[in-house]
């Protein structure tokens, strides 16, 4: 379990594709201290297990299913990735509960910079926006963010300067793809609404209030 608060930017050293998946090697620089074999790390929002530690070079196995559902297969040497270690009992929960199980891929459709923030919008499958709500949470490349605007198949978030400077979203461009994880609360609410109201049930603020969630 993670919180979506990025702790470090690691550098891709190598991604080796092989039968059934891939091996990913990352340079953690001084962030490698204290890491243990078998530990779970969120890499651009994808939960992977540490399989090798060679100084500051950390390696992971990536399954074929993970390659299919995420952007990890597109990683290139020297590219930066977001890193977060797993949540410990008693830690502050600064973002929201993030599992590291990516739901799918979104595409940056617009990036608008203003004096104090950047508004970034993303296109996704409609089944994803159907589980979102304005002012709700979403994890983008492992970053916990708040949804500003929401329409069928697209949503936007506001990024403060700190987030732009501390995560990979600071150098992402329009057309780039990102990993999307829907807030688990949205998934459970969608399932409950579907069970009570049928296949076409959608999450809205009014429906959440009607069902007693707000």
Walkthrough of the structure:
With 214 residues, the chain is α+β, with helices and mostly antiparallel strands. It is built from five helices and twelve strands. The protein has two domains: 78 residues, Elongation Factor Tu (Ef-tu), domain 3; 107 residues, Elongation Factor Tu (Ef-tu), domain 3 (Beta Barrel). 17% of the residues lie in helices and 40% in strands. The strands form two sheets. It has a six-stranded antiparallel β-barrel with strand order 1-2-5-4-3-6. Strands 7-8-11-10-9-12 form a six-stranded antiparallel beta barrel. The longest helix has 14 residues. It is globular. The two termini are 25 Å apart.
Topology:
Layout: E1 8-18, E2 21-27, E3 40-43, E4 46-54, E5 57-63, H1 64-69, E6 80-85, E7 104-113, E8 118-123, H2 126-129, E9 137-140, E10 143-151, E11 154-159, H3 161-166, E12 177-182, H4 184-197, H5 205-210
Antiparallel strand pairs: 1-2, 1-6, 2-5, 3-4, 3-6, 4-5, 7-8, 7-12, 8-11, 9-10, 9-12, 10-11
Q: Alpha-carbon distance between the termini?
A: 25 Å
Question: What is the CATH architecture term of the largest domain?
Answer: Beta Barrel
DSSP, total strands: 12
CATH class of the largest domain: Mainly Beta
Overall mean pLDDT stands at 90
> Percent helix among the residues?
10-25%
**Main sheet attributes: strand count, strand direction, barrel closure:** 6 strands, antiparallel, barrel
CATH topology of the largest domain: Elongation Factor Tu (Ef-tu), domain 3
Q: How many separate structural domains?
A: 2
Alpha-beta content class = alpha+beta
Which value, in Å, is the CA radius of gyration? Answer: 18 Å
* Element pattern in H and E: EEEEEHEEEHEEEHEHH
Shape: globular
Figure out the total of helices.
5
Q: Which residue ranges are poorly predicted, with pLDDT under 50 across at least 5 consecutive positions?
A: none
- Assembly state (oligomeric): single chain
Q: How do the strands line up in the largest sheet? A: 1-2-5-4-3-6
Strand content: 35-45%
């Amino acid at each position: 379990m993670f919180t979506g608060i990025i702790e470090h930017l690691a550098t891709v050293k190598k991604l080796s594709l092989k039968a059934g998946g891939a091996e990913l090697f990352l340079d953690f620089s001084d962030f490698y201290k204290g890491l243990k074999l078998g530990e779970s790390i969120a890499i651009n929002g994808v939960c992977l297990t540490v399989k090798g530690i060679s100084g500051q070079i950390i390696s992971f196995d990536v399954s074929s299913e993970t390659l299919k559902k995420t952007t990890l297969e597109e990683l290139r040497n020297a590219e930066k990735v977001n890193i977060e270690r797993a949540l410990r009992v008693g830690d502050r929960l600064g973002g929201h509960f993030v599992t590291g199980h990516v739901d799918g891929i979104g595409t940056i459709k617009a990036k608008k910079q203003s004096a104090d923030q950047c508004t970034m919008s993303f296109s996704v499958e409609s089944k994803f926006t159907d589980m979102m709500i304005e002012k709700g949470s979403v994890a983008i490349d492992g970053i916990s963010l708040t949804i500003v605007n929401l329409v069928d198949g697209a949503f936007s978030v506001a990024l403060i300067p700190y987030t732009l400077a501390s995560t990979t979203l600071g150098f992402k461009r329009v057309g780039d793809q990102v990993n999307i994880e829907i807030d688990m609360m949205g998934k459970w609410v969608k399932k409950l609404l579907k069970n009570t109201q049928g296949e076409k049930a959608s999450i809205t603020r009014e429906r959440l209030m009607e069902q007693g969630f707000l």
